[in-house]
Structures are given as C-alpha cells and as structure tokens.
Amino acid sequence: MRPTVAPFPTARFRRLRRTAALRDLAQEHRLSTADLIWPVFVREGEGVEEPIASMPGVVRRSIDNVVRAAHEAAELGIPAICLFPYTDASVKTNDCAEAWNPENLTNRAVRAIKAEVPGLVVMTDIALDPYNAQGHDGFVVDGEILNDETVEALVRMALAQAEAGADILGPSDMMDGRIGALRAALEAAGHSHVAIMSYAAKYASAFYGPFRDAVGAAGALRGDKLTYQMHPGNSNEALRLVERDLSEGADMVMVKPGMPYLDICRRVKDAFGVPTYAYQVSGEYAMIRGAADNGWIDGEKVVVESLLAFRRAGCDGVLTYFAPQVARLLRAR
Ligand SMILES: NCc1[nH]cc(CCC(=O)O)c1CC(=O)O
C-alpha cells in the first residue's frame, strides 16, 4: 500500500483526531477480550493460591482454584487458558516419566476444567522441563540435549494431554521434527481434532527468568538453552522455522517473547497469513508490573498499549498474564 497524502492544508491529520467518536471511527486496530489466552500455573494441594515473588499478582493454584480461574475466564469472555505445572522436586527425574503420566498435574487439571467449563479452550505445554531433573526441555546426556529421543517422549506427553481433553497443544521445546511427529501420532490415535500451536519462533531469552521461578525450574537448570532456542540476533531463521512447522502440521504459530520481537510477528503474518500469536512472557509482565507498582508508569494504560501493539504487528492473539485484568478493563469501557 502506498499512502496518498495531499499537501497541507488540504490534508490535516488532526481532523480525524478531533473527537473521541472520530478517533474511534478511524482506529485501525483494536484489542478485544477474544484475543487473549491466559497462562495459569498449577500446583498440588487444595485451596492453594501461592504468590510468585518475581511476578506480583500472579499465583500458583491448586487444581480446585484452577477450575475457579477457568470459570472466571469463561465469565469474562476469555476464550482460552494455558496450563503450566509447578512440579515438586520429587517428580523431576532424568527419564522425565512424569511428563506422560495420565495422572500428572496438568492432565488432572485439564480433566477438571473440561468437566466443569467444557466450552473454554484448554491449551497445554509440551516440553520436558517441568519433569526433568536437569531443567532442560529435552533429555540431557553428557551435557547434550538429545533431539530425536526427546521427540519420542514429547509424543507420549502429547497423547496423554490429548487423551485428557486438551484442545490446543503448545510444543515449547524447540526440538527439530516434533510438529510432524506430534501430528502423525495425534492422527493415528484418533485425536485428529486436536490443534497444535507451535512455539515456532522461540528465542533463547532472559525474559523467561520469572517463569522459571514460577514453575520451579530455575534451580534445576544448568547453563542456557542456546542449542535449541533461537539466538536473539536472528530473524530469517524465524521464517524458516514457521514454514517448517506449518509444513509439518502446525495449525497456529507463536512468536516468543513478545514485545522485543514485534518485527518477527509482522514478518510471520506478512509471509504466511496464518493464525499468529505472541507470548507476552513473564519478564515482560514483571517489568510492566514492577514499574506500575512503583508508580513509574500508569500500569493499566501501558498494559493495554502493549497488547494493542501485538494486534498492530499482525498477531491474532496474545498469551498474557494480564488477561483477566485486561478483560475487566475492556468490559468496563
Ligand atoms: N518449556 C519452557 C517454557 N515454556 C514457557 C516458557 C516461558 C514463559 C514465560 O516466560 O512467561 C518457558 C521457559 C523456557 O523456555 O525456559
């Protein structure tokens, strides 16, 4: 598109900014509650809501409270919730077997939500890190992250989640070939309706710091994830990964983190036109929330502006810890 601009004073951009109604009428992009996916942390216990120090306002919930959150999401009009387990050290092993236990925390939470709030979309995370004594997303042998063996384990994990009733599987592990393997296994096992949102362009980012506290992975993790997650300096690689994952059967693709990678969101949407999502990650949440709590920024305005930016960059939706607050704000407008 080549914008046509008449010379001043024929063109006066301020004409359409003069009143709230005119601004509304001319607004190009909008944020709606329907664009939100709410990531929620699950832990063992009952009646538990445990604060996370590095993410003020976010809690780890026992399953009964996750179900309450699911009701809240549905009432607010948030279409989807995404579950992340906070696991006890006792279930973290080198063989990561808890990851595909049909009775693990995530799978029990999925069933509990589906029993009570069946219309809510439930998304799950596929990666070994919550169940890995080594804290990595894949099996670690002699300091190396194994790819193909990990993919086999991810398939087992995915089938257990699909069996539990997950609507969208979110492979966040960044192993090669996992989307094709997951798609084939889902088709073969009668789960052809289960969608895959690939964490296709996932960067090795320091913005995940608070999340690793939230899921209790920070202590176990040695080193970094640079041999499987993307280097922050790359962008053509993101397009190649998105194309690869689409060709293997991903229904939706994600860019992660969000705000520092808006250029990637735009390029992905322009290149492929597929359902595109961004993850406003824990570090982004912590920065905004921390500055807001200190009175340095207007938290509500910054949150809405930060999420609108994803829409402008071409995203169809955003995973954000601010989802319930934003839904309430949008409803009040
Ligand atoms: N499979 C790991 C995973 N899944 C989601 C996040 C980060 C989410 C956030 O920071 O909010 C991570 C962290 C990581 O890759 O180390």
From TrEMBL:
Gene3D superfamilies recorded: Aldolase class I
InterPro entries: ALAD, ALAD_AS, Aldolase_TIM
EC class: lyase
Cellular component GO terms held in the UniProt record: cytosol
Single Gene Ontology MF annotation: zinc ion binding
Keywords: Heme biosynthesis, Lyase, Porphyrin biosynthesis
Known catalytic reactions: 2 5-aminolevulinate = porphobilinogen + 2 H2O + H(+)
Entry EC no(s): 4.2.1.24
SUPFAM superfamilies the UniProt entry points to: Aldolase (SSF51569)
Record pathway: Porphyrin-containing compound metabolism; protoporphyrin-IX biosynthesis; coproporphyrinogen-III from 5-aminolevulinate: step 1/4
GO biological process: heme biosynthetic process
Key word Lyase present: yes
Any Pfam family hit: ALAD
Active site: K202 (schiff-base intermediate with substrate), K256 (schiff-base intermediate with substrate)
PROSITE patterns, A to Z: D_ALA_DEHYDRATASE (PS00169)
PANTHER family cross-referenced by the UniProt entry: DELTA-AMINOLEVULINIC ACID DEHYDRATASE
Assembly: Homooctamer.
Entries under NCBIfam families matching the protein: PRK09283.1 (NF006762)
UniProt record similarity statement: Belongs to the ALAD family.
Protein name (database record): Delta-aminolevulinic acid dehydratase
Organism (species): Rhodobaculum claviforme
Lineage: Bacteria, Pseudomonadati, Pseudomonadota, Alphaproteobacteria, Rhodobacterales
